[in-house]
Amino acid sequence: DKADIAVTGLATMGRNLARNLARNGHTVAVHNRTRKRTDSLIAEFSGEGNFIACESLADVVRSLKRPRKVIVMVQAGAGTDEVIDQLAELLEPGDILVDGGNAHFIDSRRRESALRERGLHFVGTGISGGEEGALNGPSIMPGGTAEAYKTLGPILESISAQVDGTPCCTHVGADGAGHFVKMVHNGIEYADMQLIGESYDLLRTVLGKTPDELAEIFRTWNTGDLESFLIEITAEVLAAKDPRGGDGAFIDKVLDQTEQKGTGRWTVQIALDLGTPVSGIAEAVFARSVSGHAEQRNAARGVLDGPSEKVAVDNPDQFVEDVRRALYASKVVAYAQGFDMIRAGAEAYDWNIDLGAMATIWRGGCIIRARFLDRIREAYEKTPDLPSLLVDPYFARTVNEGQEAWRRVVATAAAAGVPVPGFGAALSYFDALRRDRLPAALLQGLRDLFGAHTYHRTDAEGSFHLEWSGDRSEREV
Ligand code: NDP
Questions:
Q1: Which EC number(s) does the record attach to this protein (predicted)?
Q2: pTM of the full predicted structure?
Q3: Most CB contacts within 10 A, which of 255, 256, 348, 363?
Q4: Rounded to the nearest whole angstrom, what is the distance from the C-alpha of residue 101 to the centroid of ligand 1?
């Protein structure tokens, strides 16, 4: 019998994806550069479904039904390029080559266009949910042609997470759209984690809560609007004890320097090019960078002063509730900015991306899965061309109701000397959007003066320039 689909690259992700496919009734051809991984998959899991172990990529191609479908799950970058090149030589027009790794969408666009010339469908696919998601149901974001999705889509939908009977998988858009959306997803994940980190820091520093007490607070938050995978696992991390023994909290033994693999950085780099202010994501990426500059932090610790007085909070329970509201409002801003970026990317690269559908496929399987994604889906379903998520009635009410708490939290953080770049940036964005007048008018004046860059008027069309005299006798020219 021939295989329905193949997976090549059987490290953590590929192995789990292959098992997921087999468990869902698909016959899966499996292959890995080093044979050992293929053998161990068969030895341990052949009982889970139908696998066909393949020695080479040529074997893979021979074992597949047409049109052939091959998922590449190898190391992103050069490894992926190498495997794709080898497969391109072996596959035939109409076959479908899926890259499920964390590729940059620009690379996916390049690969798609090169393979299209050879009659092959290349489907750059974002897969979120880590190791556990790959096995039990990830959120899947496939790009490529609608034609490829017709054959491939049903298989991917059968192995994705399901929420209320709807698969967390849909055709995102042409060429690199899937990897683009996965990139923004990861950027939002950075912002969300940063905001959670700031909430933790504030409650611990200002109120002196213990990790156990904090775990309880996050557990309670996870029963309301904030219900999400990230809040759930925050409680779990905070409740953990040091595995090396003693009564101490795990968190207090962990070095406070964060790693990054790069998708957050990509998001910010591309956002700069698109002119989309994803300040929440940018602050999160920079906050990780600051944490990693140990030398500067060591030098500054003894030199730079904190506030001279300890901040007194009269009503600790009220402050906890304020932080919860500030977290929710800031999170809404981070998602609003992320969805703006998807819209801007779709315009720039000519993709037809349904924003509501993106919220729908993030409801399950992925790291940012959360109750409130349903609200985002509703908002875009009701008004597909919503100028900003923040002006949707539900979200406008949420941020408006939360704004007093948000301001108190940012002010208290400043007074207490707790850095809150995420909360601060989100609040500034909210204020910038709603203000009648921004200081951009002054900036126009400055640019006209020092560089004759011209300015625009509120009461007339066109560009104007003043001849700046320095003696108050400026003339319009
Ligand atoms: P790794 O990124 O660790 O890559 C290892 C796999 O790549 C092995 O199977 C290895 O084969 C293969 N490989 C590397 N170079 C080559 C090459 N030149 N030719 C052939 N095979 C090669 O595996 P992961 O399972 O962690 O991740 C796979 C992909 O999924 C990556 O793109 C990664 O970024 C992405 N990923 C996504 C996650 C998510 O949550 N969505 C989480 C983790 C990863 P060999 O055994 O022979 O060395």
A1: 1.1.1.44
A2: 0.96
A3: 363
A4: 7
